[in-house]
Amino acid sequence: MIKSTYLTEKKLKSHYKNHKNDFPGLISDEYVEKAKDLLSPNFGMLCGFISTDGFSFMYQVSIYEFALEHPGGSISTFYKPENGEMHWNE
Known about the structure:
CATH topology: Nuclear Transport Factor 2, Chain: A
Structural class: alpha+beta
Strand order of the largest sheet: 1-2-3-4
Shape: globular
Helix content: 25-40%
């Protein structure tokens, strides 16, 4: 598992508040762990790429989870897009 976490506690609180309904029953620490798992190179079959400015975009099609990681390794966001794979293909 990677050591990634949110850039700041304030950002984590904001993102958890906005996306906690995507992951019913998870507390904020578990939410972060799920994001770390998705961003982990050992997670499994994913769609993903690294942008020219170094951001890692990862999407797990089978469970509709999306994560974005800053070039320095901190989590930018983690959620389940409402429109699933269509969101990824945009």
